[in-house]
Amino acid sequence: MKLLLDTHMLLWAAAGVLPEQAEALVTDGNNTVYFSAASIWEISIKKGLGRSDFKVNAEVFRRALLDHQYQEIPVTGPHALAVSDLPMLHKDPFDRMLLAQAKFEGVSLLTSDSILRQYSGPVIYISKT
Question: Among 103, 99, 40, which residue's Cα sits nearest to residue 70?
Fold first, then answer.
């Protein structure tokens, strides 16, 4: 299975606090794990805004993801265009981009965001608890 982790799942993975079901999927050697350049962008912006849940250095974080064999998905024009096909259930532009990328790339988006699970398509919702 191909899994695109949303930004919070990436941060939890780095902190070693993924929910058990998510941990099982991420560590399954049969799965390929991806992260989006949009998540790195989101971390950079939210850290700059002083958000307490985004204290990580985005450059170091990206390097660590690559070192741990996560595959990066860049943000492309077709991804940006795919956002327009999504219903306006979610207002967060980063989450909308992640979902558009998952659909476009044919991967499953792994998230604990209850709004994202309302979309049809490749969303795997895992509760935070």
Answer: 40
- Cα–Cα distance measured from residue 43 to residue 7, given in angstroms and rounded to the nearest whole number: 8
Instruction: Count structural domains, the chain.
Output: 1
CA distances from 100 to 62, 63, 91, 114 (A): 21, 24, 13, 17
pLDDT tens for each residue of 8-29: 999 999 999 999 999 999 999 9
Q: Give 31's contacts (C-beta < 8 A, 6+ positions apart).
A: 1, 2, 3, 25
The CATH number assigned to the domain holding 110 equals 3.40.50.1010
Residue 44's domain comprises: 2-125
- Give the list of residues 6+ apart from residue 64 with CB closer than 8 angstroms, or none: 14
Q: What is the pLDDT of residues 51-100, one digit of tens each?
A: 888 889 999 999 999 999 999 999 999 999 999 999 899 899 999 999 99
